[in-house]
Amino acid sequence: MKGLRKNIYAIGVIFLFVIAAGMLALFLALFSSSTAVDGTTVGSVYIGDTKPNSDKRKEKLEKDIRIWKANAIYTISFQNVSFTIGEEEETIIDETTGQETTKTLQKGLDILDFDYTTTNSKIVSNTANNVAYFTISDANKEKLFDKLVETYGTEITDSSYLDYQKLLDYILRDAGNMNTKSDYDLYDFLIKGQLEEVATAEIENLSQEKIDDILEVFEGVSIEIKPQKDPEGKLGFSAVEFFSQPEYKKLSSSDMSIIATGMAAVVMKTSLTVTVKNQGFSRDRYYGYLNSMTARINLKDDTDLRIINPETHSYFITIEKGYDSIAGKVSLRFKLEGCKFLDSYEIRQNHEEFDYHIVFNEYQTDDWEIDPNNKIDYDGTEVYYRVVVAGSNTELFSYTKVITHINGEVEEVEVFPKQEFFQGKDEILDWQPVK
Fold first, then answer.
1. Looking at beta carbons, which pairs linking 188-196 to residues 24 or more positions away fall under 8 Å?
2. Is the pLDDT of residue 292 over 60?
3. What H or E segment, with its residue span, contains residue 276?
4. Side-chain-side CA neighbours of residue 175 (13 Å)
């Protein structure tokens, strides 16, 4: 009897426990369903606290997207020239002094119109990052295009060269995701497959045999000058690294020097720059760089020539045979191909010349034929003279790259080599007094 009561008691406790657990589960389920958070967002705008298709949802979306548009920074750049969409200059005239000042206004993505109807129709409830849809009117398309032409000129923005619709599509895509900041390199929207010949240079006075030897190796070869920012091209193009490749082992140091000289010359009148390491120059060599110098490449010593490409895209150098039909001469022609440059470039040679000194030997008593016209003043005395060693002036050369920017501003920078010094010789004279 006593054992029966214990069993009944135990069963009762278990029964009560089961009921309590069920009630707790039911309570939690009801509480959870009543307090569940709706995670719906359009881009960065939270609308989970509004009902679908309600005026409150529409008002919130329009308000928050208007704020986002005003603060969004979308920048277009090309060859170090950039502008921010919506940035405008306004001239303000002081009513008291009449003085004009220019103020920059930032209107953000004011050119875009928020399309609430399409956005609302495509919202998936309890889903984050729904797309915001925008349109751009023909007038605003024209406004942005006019800004592109003003900034980059007519050649780059020509419809045969720039895919403007693709640029607009990318802007609308990023706006749809409500990115607060986006950068567009105009190069990514140029119509590819049309490398332009942007610069040429020729090396003359080479033998036909030398030209043939070089072209045998480089015919059909396109030498890529990668962007400096490229992970593989941080230090720029190295002539030594390039010529160390197995396919160029048959080239002599003379061949390498000729090619490096031509490559340096062809990039000079561009935004690309040249740096050198342990270079010596000679004006007497049979080929010339800027008509006066040569680069020297020898894989066995510590010399090098590097080309730095500051743009975001590669340029390519090809080598071919040049021919002057009038002079009947052949040459080695270097072509630089790639995207057009916004700025124009010229090289100015700066030249200073210093007169040689005259050195008089001791009075010469030996017999030599005196030219009565060869008279000169020597220490206050008129004397006859004859030239023993002809003198030559000392010359100093330097080179300046003159850059005319797309906005008309002119900039001058020193270029390789910064200075060339050619030491002259003293003129040595024999002399005898005029009797």
1. 189/162, 189/163, 189/164, 190/156, 190/161, 190/162, 190/163, 190/339, 191/160, 191/161, 191/162, 191/163, 194/161, 195/316, 195/337, 195/338, 196/337, 196/338, 196/339, 196/340
2. no
3. strand 273-277
4. 30
pLDDT at residue number 116: 95
Residues 300 and 429 in one domain: no
Given a contact cutoff of 8 angstroms between Cβ atoms, the answer to whether 274 and 264 are in contact is: yes
- Smallest CA-to-CA distance from 275 within 247, 243, 313, 235 is with 235
Domain count within the chain: 3
How far does Cα 409 stand from its chain's mean position? 18
Beta-strand pair 420-422/394-404: antiparallel
At residue 296, the pLDDT reads 75
Per the DSSP assignment, residues forming a β-bridge with 136 are 112
- Whether residue 401 is contained in a domain is answered as yes
Strand pairing category for 196-203 and 427-433: unpaired
Q: Could you tell me what percent of the chain has a pLDDT over 70?
A: 83
What is the Cβ-side half-sphere exposure of residue 318, based on CA atoms within 13 angstroms? 14
Rounded CA-CA distance 333/287 in Å is: 13
Average pLDDT in the 118-138 region?
Answer: 94
Backbone angles phi, psi at 65, to 5 degrees: -70, -30
What is the CB neighbour count within 10 angstroms for residue 81?
Answer: 15
Examine the domain organization and report whether 134 and 241 are in the same domain: no
Tokens of 197: 């010949």
Supply the Cα-derived Rg of the chain in whole angstroms.
Answer: 39
Instruction: Please give the model's pTM, rounded to 2 decimal places.
Output: 0.71
**Mean per-residue pLDDT of the chain:** 83
Q: Are residues 307 and 407 in the same domain?
A: no
Per-residue pLDDT, 93: 77
